[in-house]
Design brief:
Elements (H helix, E strand, L loop, with lengths): L1 H4 L2 H20 L1 H53 L7 H24 L1
Helix pairs in contact: 2-3
């Protein structure tokens, strides 16, 4: 999970979502109340289930570690073949807009000719 979260694309997307969430909460008092209640509920459920889940975590730990190792190797390979994962969302959007604008301009030129 940490390796995925550390990908530039994922990290920047999470930052954007977090900023939008905080901004929405700050701008709308009723939404803030609902979000605050939901956050408290999630924290309470997390605390309540932590001790119940521990025996299952202990049993599954070796399997999770093996799956994590396999996933890590796959992510490394994916990162090599998709350099897009190392770019922030803002740059991807900017590059995409630039590419689309260029293609539209090329199409317009072709139609005019």
């Amino acid at each position: 999970v940490n390796q995925v979260a550390n990908l530039t694309l994922v990290s920047s997307a999470c930052d954007m979502v977090s900023t939008a969430y905080a901004s929405t909460k700050d701008s709308h008092p009723y939404v803030r109340s609902v979000c605050d209640a939901a956050e408290k509920g999630v924290k309470s459920v997390t605390k309540a289930t932590a001790s119940c889940v521990q025996p299952v975590r202990t049993t599954l730990e070796p399997h999770v570690a093996a799956a994590s190792e396999y996933a890590s190797k796959g992510l490394d390979k994916l990162g090599e073949t998709l350099p897009l994962l190392q770019k922030p969302v803002e740059q991807i959007l900017s590059d995409t807009k630039e590419l689309v604008s260029s293609r539209v301009a090329d199409a317009k030129d072709a139609v005019r000719s």
